Amino acid sequence: MPRPSDPVARSAAPTGDTERTEGPAGAGAATGATGRIRRFSRAERWVHRSTAALMGLCAASAACLYLPALAELVGRRHLVVTVHVWSGLLLVGPFLLGLASRAFRADLRRLGRFGPHDGVWLRAALRRDRVTRRPAGKFNAGQKVYAGWLAGAVLVMAGTGALMWWTGLVPLARRTAATFVHDWLALAVAAVLAAHVGKALADPEARRGLRTGSVSRAWAEREHPLWRHERDERDERDEE
After folding, report:
1. CA atoms of 85 and 162, how far apart (whole Å)
2. Beta bridge partners of 21
3. What is the mean pLDDT of the chain?
4. Of 226, 170, 240, whose CA–CA distance to 8 is shortest?
5. Rounded Cα distance, 103 and 41, in Å
6. How far apart are CA 67 and CA 71, in angstroms?
7. Residue 16: what pLDDT?
8. Do residues 182 and 160 touch, judged by C-beta distance below 8 A?
9. Those residues with Cβ within 8 angstroms of residue 103's Cβ, 6 or more apart along the chain or in another chain
10. pTM tops 0.85, yes or no
11. What's the CA gap between 95 and 240, in Å, rounded?
């Protein structure tokens, strides 16, 4: 029997108080009447949309460079290369601008913090175990791994791409190695992004959260049962 102090038990227990949500600056706001919980601030949604647009432009221009049929259809190779390079280099722009948002910085800390419950979630996911409960805070372990991997991949892609674009920086042998890493990592990124989009298409409420900033309380309790515990801890810190 779980104890009332246990995070999972606390998250699942019904309460009579008004639900508190995270506003644009991370402050609490009541939404008890609507039954919805603020998940993402306006700044966070802007960062996600801008990053997705730049990533899509980067992937589309890459396809036009590497697939002969698309390259012949589009033509203007130098323009496509220029679009590809700058859309890749600008990928860090939304992230850097997003650091001005308190809510964005708070979510970055959440994404970089792993706890014991994340290990439980990952083991259940790897075993494709649909019986074991998968505890998760605002972000589950899969989202944390995805965010960290993609951030590292973007940095490597930007670095190898720069070596390919500015040919005078390193000798030919290193540019060849950079091209090899860039091309194969691009395929891995494409596969991971396709899986990410597939997961999003399978979860309309998650997409609604990114579109409007709020999600239903029932969805939050089912998919992210420890998130209430995280909000309670934040409110306690704010009151001290």
Report:
1. 8
2. 29
3. 82
4. 226
5. 7
6. 6
7. 35
8. yes
9. 22, 23, 24, 25, 26, 40, 41, 43, 44
10. no
11. 30
